[in-house]
Amino acid sequence: MGKGATNVKAGPSIVYSGYVDTGQKKMAIINGWEYEAGQPLDVEGYLLKKVTPSRVLIVNRTTGGETYVTIQE
Question: How many angstroms from the chain centroid is the CA of residue 32?
Fold first, then answer.
């Protein structure tokens, strides 16, 4: 028997696919939707905390855990 993937975290599918900077606000395209920092995601229980051109910071509102997701080009 092989070893199981015990270190793999089960979690939502979050795809960061685009960055928009209008000069007034920075927005991320996540799972096909546009979000600004501070907005809840369409994935229940998650919030977009920070947006940069290369990655976003996602917060699990239940546990307080934070995860960086890099852009998929």
Answer: 12
**Sequence-ordered list of residues with C-beta below 8 angstroms from that of 23, at least 6 positions apart, any chain:** none
For the whole model, what pTM was predicted? 0.81
Side-chain half-sphere exposure of 5, counting CA atoms within 13 A: 3
Tens of each residue's pLDDT in the chain, 73 residues: 444 333 334 467 899 999 999 999 999 999 999 999 999 999 999 999 999 999 999 999 999 999 999 999 7
Cα-based angle 21, 28, 35 (whole degrees, multiple of 5): 105
